[in-house]
Amino acid sequence: MSRILAVPTFLLAGRLSLCVCAFVGSGVGLAGCGSSQPAPEVNPSESTASTPSADAAPRAGQSAPLPVTVRERSDSARVTLTESMAPSSRAEPRVFATRGGLSASGLYDQMQTPGSAPASTESYSRIEENRFLRVGEHPLSTFSIDVDTASYANVRRFLTQGVLPPPDAVRIEELLNYFPYGDPAPTGEDTPFAVRVEMAGCPWNAEHRLARIALKGRAIATDQRPLSNLVFLLDVSGSMNSPRKLPLLKNALRKMVEQLGENDRVAIVVYAGASGLVLPSTSCSELPKILSALEELQAGGSTNGGAGIQLAYDTAVANFIKGGTNRVILATDGDFNVGVSNEGELTRLIEQKAKSGVFLTVLGLGMGNYKDSNLEKLADKGNGNYAYLDSLKEAEKVLVEEIGGTLVTIAKDVKIQVEFNPSKVGAYRLIGYENRILNKEDFNDDRKDAGEIGAGHHVTALYEIVPPSEEKVEAASKTPEVDPLKYQETSSTQRPSDELLTVKLRYKQPEAETSQLIELGVTDQDSGYANASSDFKFASAVAGFGMLLRNSPEKGSLTYAGIKELAGSALDQDRSGYRAEFLELVGKAEQLAQVR
User: Fold this and answer.
1) Angle, helix 560-568 to helix 578-595, in steps of 10 degrees
2) 3-state class (DSSP) for residue 15
3) Is 325 helix (H, G, I), strand (E, B) or coil?
4) CB 23 within 8 A of CB 3
């Protein structure tokens, strides 16, 4: 079963309240294992690889299976695991090649109790990659920002276990926004973030240009963080009974709580088959009491996420700190199987609760039955951010090193709209952000929800740009020009300008309902890639890596060796070591691609 942990965080001046919610349930709700959800359909002409879940409980008297993660190179948005294998005496990754374009890798968990496990599935929403658009027909590109980082950590989990990730698990914007960049911070107190735009040659297509739009959120010192009212909403159902889930989560939250001030507050709500308030909102001056409540949590039962969400938000609202940080922190594997359990009902519930002024952080955990598709949508609809905890190190990054960005929202409903000059640009493509695309009318509509930026957050978006040559435009867009309209005239009048594009941003202050506008015109100085900034080079390498993992039709001349060369030239701003780790992951992917 999936487990959910949600903790609402609210931005309030001078105080932090934390409320923790945990859910507990029985059984594992997986397709083909007694779940109410039907098993995914499989095309009989395609081969599938299957394995037991690494997180599911074994049946008594049977040998422990070898958990195997599968990568399906088709358009399916599900990774199906059904085949059980006996463990070897060594905890070594094993790679299996199967026909039909599937590859699988398994790693036996020595911490797992002997016995076999039921089949399990991981699910990811399908991604339809953005295509090249003609500027004459689509002069505006509009999208919501995204500060989630879950996809990068999840991709790392797959590669570390010796398997290429499913294409739909690779969201390029989340790979880009995982890393810190050296962009300048805002200078004024009234401006929540600074905007920077850089242009240079495109490293995978010499005839194209690449534009990098970067936002840098205002950082907040620890002693200046507003008071916090946090609710931990924790999934303690049976599917969380794995070393990679509840034990990891307890260690992570322990480290987080130790960073809070004595005037901050924490509550803990748990859910499984039912939900309950394990710890009412408690001042962090009573730290031992909070830590003891966390330590006593145990997993078991089914997963009733809806009931836990309701209780967590009620707890957060009851202890709301005006001007402070009010947030629910939901921790789970996303596998809801009782109560309000389908995606539509859960997202509508979260949308309703988001109107209370309580923000949301979603922490994903585990493997085998992980429901990324559920968790991404909950964070999106709940004015939240989404991270995946594949290790204690990642938990420290999200909950300790970047605690300000995780907890404190400095701007909400942040939208970007780019207008391209048709005399300078023939076509363009936004790389990533496929599930954040907005209609052009949405940009000026303050009723339209968009993404949030936390304190110190970095946001990067890349556009690949084609010069205004019909031959090059048609080659890039792969579609002919639309016929002229019969019943109305179209004006081709253009205003002369040296600008290549204009970037406009709209955002609201955390407690405001009216947006503010930032506008920036950009000219292209014809800078070559070699003269680009270190951040530009590294971001292009990360985007290229994502395109290779997705086997994107727009990957051009990219190779894994080329990605290593691009990223290797941009390690001068790597105090955290994340860029060096990225190079290691590129090497792992290169080896796996050769085996495949």
Assistant:
1) 170
2) coil
3) strand
4) yes
The model carries a pTM of 0.80
- Per the structure block, which two tokens stand in for 328? 């629910």
Distance between CA atoms of 179 and 194, rounded to whole angstroms?
17
Query: pLDDT at residue 586 above 60?
Result: yes
| pLDDT tens profile 385-400 | 999 999 999 999 999 9
Q: Using the predicted structure, report yes or no on whether residue 324 has a pLDDT greater than 90.
A: yes
Edge to edge, what strands does the sheet with 102-106 contain?
A: 68-72, 102-106, 94-98
CA R_g for the chain:
24
For 416, half-sphere exposure in the C-beta direction (CA atoms, 13 angstrom radius) is 29
Q: Are the C-beta atoms of 188 and 182 separated by less than 8 Å? A: no
Which amino acid, one-letter code, is at 482? Answer: V
Q: How far apart are the C-alpha atoms of 117 and 242, rounded to whole Å?
A: 12
Residue with tokens 């803990």: 268
Residue whose C-alpha is closest to residue 365's, from 349, 348, 387, 342: 387
- DSSP string for residues in 373-414: HHHHHHHHHTTEEEEE-SSHHHHHIIIIITHHHHH-EEEEEE
Tell me which amino acid residue 101 is. G
Query: Tokens 């253009």 correspond to what residue?
Result: 494
- Cβ atoms of 6 and 328 within 8 Å: the answer is yes
Place of tokens 């060369």: 565
The Cα 246–Cα 516 span in angstroms is 42
pLDDT digits (tens, 9 = 90+) for 473-529: 888 877 777 788 889 876 666 788 999 999 999 999 998 999 999 999 999 999 999
Q: Percent of the chain beyond pLDDT 90?
A: 62
Instruction: Give the span between the Cα atoms of 176 and 286, in whole angstroms.
Output: 39
Q: At what angle do helices 578-595 and 150-160 cross, to 10 degrees?
A: 50
d(CA 255, CA 248): 11
Which residues are within 8 A (CB) of 173 and not within 5 positions of it... i.e. 6 or more apart?
Answer: 146, 148, 432, 433, 436, 460, 461
- Give the count of beta carbons closer than 10 Å to the beta carbon of residue 208: 22
Identify each DSSP E strand in 7-67 by its residue range: 9-12, 16-17, 19-24
